[in-house]
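Researcher: Hi, I'm a grad student and pretty new to this. My advisor asked me to get structures for two proteins we've been looking at. I'm not sure of the right format, so I'll just paste the first sequence and hope you can take it from there.
Model: That works fine. Here's the first sequence with its structure tokens right after it:
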Amino acid sequence: MTISRPSRSHDAGFSLAEMLVATAIAAFGLAGVAALIGTGIQLQGNARASTIGVNLAVAELERLRALPSTSAERTNGGSLVANAANHFAVRGQTTMRWVIADGPACGPVSWAGPAAPVECSKSITVVAIPPNPLAARSTVTGLLWR
């Protein structure tokens, strides 16, 4: 009685070439995921800087509203593209710029009687420029009274 042995040429398994191809595909996929993680971190940082900019712009607008109407910072003028005297400030690393112009509404002061002085609103635009050049600039527009 003879016992036959199965042939080893039909053994199941992977060859070295198949393993190299599978490893290369997995490495390529992992490199793509790593790049996406890096991009996500960068976008999160940009979003954070933009959110801080909006908050600073709103705070600056409220600060300007609280100033007396005769304050130099509330006079008409300013620039959103360059630092203009009395119309810019640096808060931390963020540059704030604003423009003030005569607003849409004028009228007599109601409490002053028939000889009331005319008082006009002023429109104001505040822009917050973050230190990160990839982050968006934040712009807030509002009105100043008195």
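Researcher: Oh nice, that was easy. Here's the second one.
Model: And its structure:
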Amino acid sequence: MIKEAQQPNLIYLVASLCLLGATIVYHLAIMADDPSSIAAKALGENNERLLASVLGSLSPEKKHHMLIQALVTERELAIIRALLEHGAPAFMPASGPIPLHLAVLEANIAAALLIVDASLPLDLNATDTRGDTALHLACKSAAREEDLVGLLESLITHNANPSLQDRRGRTPLHYASWDGRWQIVRALLDAKADVDVRDSSGYCCQDLLNASSVWHDPLPVRSVNAPPFVALLTTTNGSRHHL
């Protein structure tokens, strides 16, 4: 017969063994789960720590698709940072949408900057099906112009080409000029964007600044307070951009 003094110790031992058993069962269940399932759960819950714990077990392709999913579903910035820090490729040819383009299209400038500054292999001049680069999309984005200027400067610093043409022959400067986004126009001119490039309709950027209507496709309402083109061509230090 067990003495009464020994009963609390026995109860404590049994409780400890039950807790240990439950802990072992829990960890075995986690180990038995597919890392992809755990990652999907973490993504849905915005659980950065859980996500980071399994990213090392995922293929680059899986992490790339999770990065796209995180951008489309507007996950927290910490999730996007975790994916990038654990090697989610920011660019994979022929793998669907380009993550940087998605961030810009969603006006998620903070995420776009994370991608650009992540020091991962990334083709900043890659184009979508319409021939748009990240710079084209930034110049057409609904985000605040002040935020976009910072993104443009980062893109250009990382060797994005400001003079590439889309399928209509238009450069980022065409869109910024037509939309009256003068801070962006200035940033592109400072980056030596080519002002003489003509689109497929034959219009260059100066034509767009001087015209009231030249394109037939839908565009934002144009600013009527366009500064003189020669003023835009004057840099902040007083020198002139070359025509």
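Researcher: Is there anything I should tell my advisor about the second?
Model: You could mention this: The radius of gyration is 27 Å.
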